[in-house]
Amino acid sequence: MAAGPALAPLAPAERAASADPAALVAGSLTARPRTARYVAQGALAMSILGASTAVSARITDYPVLGGQALRYALAAAVFAVVVRRRRLPPVRPTVRDWLLLALLSATGLILFNIFVLAALRHTDAATLGSVVACSPLVLAVAGPLVTRTGHRPRRGVVLGAAGLVVAGSAMVQGFGHGSALGIVFAVLVLACESLFSLLAVPLLPKFGELRVSAYVTAVAVPVLALAGLATDGTAMLRVPTAAETAAMLYLSLPLTVGAFLLWYRALGGLGPQRAGLLIGAVPVSACAASAALGVGTPGIPQLAGVAVVVAGIITGLARG
C-alpha cells in the first residue's frame, strides 16, 4: 500500500488551536451530526435491500438475465439524467479505475445475482441469509486493507461488534439446511457482497457515490444483455405482468438508484469497518417486510436476534 502524503509542520497558531480543548470539543460536536447522517443513510440503504427479498419473489418466473438487464438499464438511464443535471466536473478514469469499476460491476452486480439464484437451487433462503450475514465480519477484517486514512476504528471493538451483528443476523434468519454445493454458492454470494463495498472504497474519493453507481450500473447492462441473448435468445425478454412490473420498478429505483447512492455515501463517510455493521439491518428489514406482507410472523428467536443486531451496531459505532 502506498504511503500517504507527508504532513507539513503546524504553525504556532495552528498548534495552539489544535491543543485547545474547546476547539477539539467543537470539532467533535460538528462531526457527530455528520456521522449520524451517514449511519442513517447506510441503515436505510440496507433496509431497502432487506425488503427487496420479498419483492424479488414476484419476478422468479421472469427470465433472469433479461430481467436483470432491464432493471439495470432503467437505473443506468436515471443515473445518466442525474449526472447530466448535476453538471459534475469532468473526471478522467485511468486504466486502473476502469479495471476496478469493471470488477466491481462483475462481482457486486452480475455474479452476485447469478450466485444467489444458484445457491437457492441447492439450499434454502435461511442458510443463504445466514452465510451472507457474515459480511460485517469480512468488512471488519478486510476494511483496513483498502482504507488509507490514519483514523481507523479500534479493530478489536469493531470485530467484537461485527461478531454480535453476525450472531444476531443468524438468529433472525434461522439456520435452515442445504447441500455442500449450496454452501459453496452461498460463500460466493458473501464474497460478491463484500467486494461490492471493498472495491468501491478506493474509487469513492475520486468519483463520488453518484459516478461510481452510474458507472457500475451502466457496465452491467451490456454484459447481462449479451449473456441473456447467448443463453435464452429472444426469450430473454417478454412483457412483464403488473406484479412483475411493480417489482422491477422497485428493484430499479428504490434499490439500485436509491440504496446504491445511500450506501456508497455511508461507506465513504464511515469507512468499510463501521459501515459494514449496518448490513445487520438487512435481515431485520427482511423480517419486518415478510411480516408486513403476511408471509411470516417473527417469533421470540427472531425478536431476540433483532436485539442482538441492534446491540452490535450500537457498540461498534459508539466505541469503534
Automatic annotation (TrEMBL):
<feature type="transmembrane region" description="Helical">
    <location>
        <begin position="275"/>
        <end position="293"/>
    </location>
</feature>
<dbReference type="Pfam" id="PF00892">
    <property type="entry name" value="EamA"/>
</dbReference>
<comment type="similarity">
    <text>Belongs to the EamA transporter family.</text>
</comment>
<dbReference type="InterPro" id="IPR050638">
    <property type="entry name" value="AA-Vitamin_Transporters"/>
</dbReference>
<dbReference type="InterPro" id="IPR000620">
    <property type="entry name" value="EamA_dom"/>
</dbReference>
<feature type="transmembrane region" description="Helical">
    <location>
        <begin position="69"/>
        <end position="86"/>
    </location>
</feature>
<dbReference type="InterPro" id="IPR037185">
    <property type="entry name" value="EmrE-like"/>
</dbReference>
<feature type="domain" description="EamA">
    <location>
        <begin position="43"/>
        <end position="167"/>
    </location>
</feature>
<feature type="transmembrane region" description="Helical">
    <location>
        <begin position="157"/>
        <end position="175"/>
    </location>
</feature>
<feature type="domain" description="EamA">
    <location>
        <begin position="181"/>
        <end position="314"/>
    </location>
</feature>
<feature type="transmembrane region" description="Helical">
    <location>
        <begin position="212"/>
        <end position="230"/>
    </location>
</feature>
<feature type="transmembrane region" description="Helical">
    <location>
        <begin position="181"/>
        <end position="205"/>
    </location>
</feature>
<keyword id="KW-1133">Transmembrane helix</keyword>
<feature type="transmembrane region" description="Helical">
    <location>
        <begin position="242"/>
        <end position="263"/>
    </location>
</feature>
<protein>
    <submittedName>
        <fullName>DMT family transporter</fullName>
    </submittedName>
</protein>
<feature type="transmembrane region" description="Helical">
    <location>
        <begin position="126"/>
        <end position="145"/>
    </location>
</feature>
<feature type="transmembrane region" description="Helical">
    <location>
        <begin position="299"/>
        <end position="318"/>
    </location>
</feature>
<feature type="transmembrane region" description="Helical">
    <location>
        <begin position="98"/>
        <end position="120"/>
    </location>
</feature>
<keyword id="KW-0472">Membrane</keyword>
<keyword id="KW-0812">Transmembrane</keyword>
